[in-house]
From TrEMBL:
The lineage of its organism: Eukaryota, Metazoa, Chordata, Craniata, Vertebrata. Residues 28-79 form the Chemokine interleukin-8-like domain. One of its GO terms (molecular function) is chemokine activity. Keywords: Cytokine, Signal. One of its GO terms (biological process) is immune response. InterPro entries: Chemokine_IL8-like_dom (IPR001811), Interleukin_8-like_sf (IPR036048). It comes from the Eukaryota. This is Chemokine interleukin-8-like domain-containing protein. Residues 1-25 form the signal peptide.
Length: 99
C-alpha cells in the first residue's frame, strides 16, 4: 500500500517543485516609467538598479527601491537623484546596480 501511495504522490511533488522553479525564473520588468517622482520619495531611495532594454525587459528604466516598494523611473531621473543625494553626508550611501 505504501509504495503505491508513494508512486501517486511523487509526480505531484515533482510538478509542484517544477512550478516553483519556473515562477522564480520570471523577471520583474518595468513596463512603463515615470519622470515625475516626488522629491520626498527620491530622498527615501535605498538602492537603484538599472534595467536595460537590451536584455529580457523591453524598456530602459531605473528601478528605485524605497522600503518595500519598487518604483519604475525614467533614466533621466538619475541626474536628479544623484544631485539630490550628493549632500547625504553621514547617512547611508546609495547602492546603485548597473550603469
Amino acid at each position: 500500500m505504501a509504495p503505491r501511495l508513494l508512486l501517486l504522490l511523487l509526480p505531484l511533488i515533482l510538478l509542484l517543485w517544477l512550478n516553483l522553479i519556473c515562477v522564480a525564473a520570471i523577471p520583474k520588468c518595468c513596463v512603463t516609467t515615470s519622470k515625475n517622482i516626488d522629491p520626498a520619495v527620491l530622498r527615501k531611495v535605498v538602492s537603484v538598479k538599472f534595467q536595460s532594454a537590451g536584455g529580457v525587459c523591453e524598456v530602459d528604466a531605473l528601478v528605485l527601491h524605497v522600503k518595500r516598494r519598487r518604483i519604475c523611473a525614467h533614466p533621466a531621473v538619475k541626474k536628479i537623484l544623484t544631485k539630490m543625494l550628493k549632500g547625504r553626508r553621514g547617512k547611508k550611501k546609495l547602492f546603485i546596480i548597473g550603469n
